[in-house]
Write a structure and sequence with these properties.
45% helix; alpha/beta
Length: 219
Amino acid sequence: MDRRLGRKLVVLDADSTLIDNEVIELLADEAGSGLLVSEITDRAMRGELDFAASLRERVATLRGLTPEAIDRVRAKVSVTKGVPELIAAVQAENGWVCVVSGGFHEVLDPIAQALGVNAWRANRLETAPDGSLSGQVSGQIVDASAKATALLDWANEGVFLRGDTVAIGDGANDLDMMLVAGVSIAFCAKPIVRASADVSIDDRDMRLAIDLIAGSTVN
């Protein structure tokens, strides 16, 4: 008996979902602001702080960080167990896996490319003329509303019905996209997200999502 997913659009958050890490905290460790940034991140994920304002505050502490430091952060990032299997299962049935992140293109891009996801969006760190970080975010911030918009844009682009869309996340910034998705999965999530999601996964193994989003059972 095989579990069939059907053709689905699966949209994952990046930090602590697609990957095991919180990239802003790794960057802050390089900048010497790790404790401060970790506390702000935790409050934002619990929904106690406005995400855009908290992101700007955290990024400001990264001013002067060099490209070499960003390279070191990339090397520390690990993909969550089971993510490649989830991607393979979805794409095997002509579905899409996309990633929308409150994190940063500078770290997400090579990961997304290596995994072969269909599309992704993230924030971009502004650089100074010498190549170091300016301490600001370039362009529009990917907040909760932007995540929901991304899911709907990809659904329209790929011609997915709302009932065939799945959002997977762990923090308050994921709540809007989880609300507009057909199925929402809280992945090792904060209590506010677990309370809002359709289903929860408590083990860090993304393979568990495959059965949760399976569309039918075929003998």
